[in-house]
């Protein structure tokens, strides 16, 4: 090995197959940190890049191996994680307001650092977007929190969902089962909507107070109207079904990345002042609060483990693609 670091990565390809490759980086300098990857979540967004010639994975957890000379607050041996955002400018209005997930000059998964990801043996990241994992959270549980957990928690944190609110969660999957836990632990009443009754017992065990099966339903008869509705399914729901159970001035958060346009009936939206609010990944402040909250309340993803190998990546992504993972796939070194 010459000067610097050679490490393994698992990449996408034009044909969509997984390719094992070697990347090379100089040793970390400045604010850079060399992380030895131990775990990675497999996220639905990774599927979007499986045809790209880039290293996959953005729900990474590992141990610090080397530090650049300017890094503060981290030490060799620390367990750290990272998510979708790699670096932000720190000087734009969004960054200064604490909304750095909307930085106008961000470096993110799929747009930068294409030679490294969380599917691999090592990676070098800017310390500004690395997060210490609290001692109370196992690394394998922390990995899905870095994107999946952060995505739902940032809605709660940014848009001020209160313990006195009634919140609907559409879908009990990778995002939904975490949303139910966060909301119930903060004291909100959680109504879960799922296609069939198959996940009723699990949703109630996770903290839901109500459960409604929606397949074939033309109208929802629920206990009381909702202040908020978080949509976590891989497909967009029948909006007319849900607009009727929203309180006036209620808020809907579509977290689905399906490629389909959102088409919503205008009349109930306008006459009842309902807001449809987009939300992308997480700010650093929300990410830190999410990890602390998860540690304090023992919130854990339900995971399936796969080896951090070419075959393991292929099997985990295939199972996710087929909708058979309950509820987050995690690659383990």
UniProtKB/TrEMBL annotation:
Q: Which cofactor does it need?
A: Zn(2+)
Q: Which UniProt keywords apply?
A: Metal-binding, Oxidoreductase, Zinc
User: What Gene3D superfamilies does the annotation carry?
Assistant: Medium-chain alcohol dehydrogenases, catalytic domain, NAD(P)-binding Rossmann-like Domain
For this chain, one GO molecular function annotation is:
zinc ion binding
Per the record, the domain of life is Eukaryota
Question: Is the keyword Ribosomal protein in the record?
Answer: no
Say if the entry is tagged with keyword Cytoplasm.
no
Q: Which residues form the Enoyl reductase (ER) domain?
A: 17-331
Q: Which family does it belong to?
A: Belongs to the zinc-containing alcohol dehydrogenase family.
What's the name of the protein?
Chaperonin 10-like protein
Q: Which organism is it from?
A: Mycena maculata
């Amino acid at each position: 090995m010459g000067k610097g670091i050679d490490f393994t990565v698992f990449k996408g390809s034009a044909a969509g197959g997984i390719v094992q490759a070697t990347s090379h980086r100089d040793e970390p300098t400045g604010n850079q940190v060399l992380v030895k990857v131990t775990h990675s979540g497999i996220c639905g967004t990774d599927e979007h890049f499986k045809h790209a010639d880039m290293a996959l994975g953005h729900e990474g957890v590992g141990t610090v191996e080397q530090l650049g000379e300017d890094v503060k607050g981290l030490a060799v041996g620390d367990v750290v994680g990272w998510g979708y955002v790699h670096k932000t400018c720190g000087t734009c209005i969004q960054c200064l307001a604490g909304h750095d997930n909307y930085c106008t000059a961000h470096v993110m998964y799929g747009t930068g650092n294409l030679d490294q990801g969380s599917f691999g043996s090592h990676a070098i990241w800017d310390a500004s977007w690395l997060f210490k994992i609290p001692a109370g959270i196992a690394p394998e549980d922390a990995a899905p929190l870095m994107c999946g957990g952060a995505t739902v928690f940032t809605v709660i944190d940014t848009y001020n969902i209160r313990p006195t609110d009634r919140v609907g969660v559409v879908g009990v999957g990778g995002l939904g089962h975490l949303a139910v836990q966060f909301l119930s632990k903060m004291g909100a009443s959680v109504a879960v909507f799922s296609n069939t009754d198959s996940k009723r017992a699990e949703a109630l065990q996770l903290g839901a107070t109500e459960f409604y099966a929606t397949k074939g339903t033309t109208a929802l008869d629920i206990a009381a109207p909702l202040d908020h509705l978080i949509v976590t399914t891989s497909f967009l729901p029948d909006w007319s079904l849900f607009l009727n159970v929203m309180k006036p001035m209620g808020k809907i958060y579509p977290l689905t990345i399906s490629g389909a346009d959102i088409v919503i009936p205008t009349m109930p939206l306008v006459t009842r002042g309902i807001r449809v609010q987009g939300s992308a990944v997480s700010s650093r402040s929300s990410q830190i609060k999410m990890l602390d909250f998860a540690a304090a309340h023992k919130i854990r993803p339900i995971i399936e483990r796969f080896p951090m190998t070419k075959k393991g990546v292929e099997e985990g992504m295939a199972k996710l693609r087929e909708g058979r993972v309950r509820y987050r796939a995690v690659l383990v070194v």
